[in-house]
Structure formats: C-alpha cells, structure tokens
Design a protein that fits this description.
The radius of gyration is 16 Å and the shape is globular. Strands 1, 2, 3, 4, 5 and 6 form a six-stranded antiparallel β-sheet that branches. It has five helices and six strands; from the N terminus they run H-H-H-E-E-E-E-E-E-H-H. Helix 2 packs across helix 3. The protein has a single domain, classed as Sandwich (Jelly Rolls), CATH 2.60.120. The chain has 170 residues and is of the alpha+beta class. The N terminus is likely disordered.
Length: 170
C-alpha cells in the first residue's frame, strides 16, 4: 500500500484541509490497517479525523491524559522522555507508522513527549471511542489489539538492539 503524498507546499496548507483525502480513503490506505476488513476500517473511520501538524507542534506531553491514537500518513514525529537532565530522544515515528497506545492502558497517561519535526498529516482517532468499540465488538477488539501488540513488539526489539549497541554488546 502506498502512503498518501504530502501537499506540494505543506507549510502553506497545514491545518486548512487542502489536498486532504476523505477519512475513509486515508484509513483504507494506511499500512497499519492493511488486510483489516472494510467493516472494521469503517468503525475506525467513524472515530477518526485528519489532522495536519506543523513542525514544532506538541502532539502530546508526558504525564498528560492519553485519549488519542495516531496513524501517520506522512511527516515525522519525535518521541522524547522528559528526564532530570532534559529530554532524551527515544524514537522518530514517520509515514505508515502508529503513534500512541497509552490510551489502552491505565492510568491512560502519555509516557513520552511527541513533537512534530516536519509537516505531518495523521489520522487522529478517539481512543475512548475505540476502547468502547473494542469492548462491544470482541472480534474487532482482538484484531486491533493484535495489530497494536505487533507494533509494541517491533519497537521493543528496536529498543533492545539500540541498548545493545550503546553497551557494546552488539
């Protein structure tokens, strides 16, 4: 599946909806949802909207309540951890990737800061609505959790490799 291309001049068109596909099209084309049934994609689209973010925008702040889930269409978002000596870079999330699963797990608070590093378009999904759908429609909930679990596993493996490299073990 291909990602939706950015507008020709993202900084001029950010936040105004120009060149935006329908939410249904964006959901259908996102790699995270590849192979998901049309009915399940429709459930996601009902709780979603397209958002355009500018470089420097704070998507969420560590410790704040987590009620959103993002599917990145294009652009980049940097995840950092607010430590005692400042922000520690964790990861950069880009086109075709997902951002934020803290809405799934109590205490439903963000564990990192997320800052936009270049103009970005994303599908913003209401985590509370999605959680309610998962509880009501178990087949949908299982499918979504399976996909999110796969992302968590991949990110944990990348983090482990990074730690091994830093420690000289790899």
């Amino acid at each position: 599946m291909k990602n939706i291309a950015p507008p020709s001049t993202p900084t001029e068109k950010a936040h105004d909806g120009a060149d935006a596909p329908s939410i249904e099209t964006a959901v259908a084309q996102h790699p995270f949802l590849a192979g998901m049934s049309p009915a399940h994609r429709e459930l996601i689209a009902r709780s979603a909207s397209l958002v355009d973010l500018r470089a420097g925008d704070l998507v969420f702040k560590q410790g704040d309540p987590a009620h959103k889930f993002y599917l990145i269409l294009w652009g980049a978002v940097s995840l950092t951890h607010a430590g005692l000596k400042g922000n520690v870079p964790i990861q950069c999330v880009g086109a075709g990737e997902v951002l934020g699963w803290s809405w799934l797990f109590p205490p439903n608070a963000w564990h990192f800061n997320a800052m936009v590093t270049e103009p970005t378009r994303a599908i913003e999904i209401d985590g509370k609505a999605l959680s309610a759908l998962c509880a009501q429609q178990h087949e949908f909930g299982y499918e979504l959790m399976r996909r999110i679990s796969q992302v968590v596993i991949e990110r944990l493996q990348k983090t482990r490799q990074k730690l091994f490299k830093l420690s000289g073990q790899l």
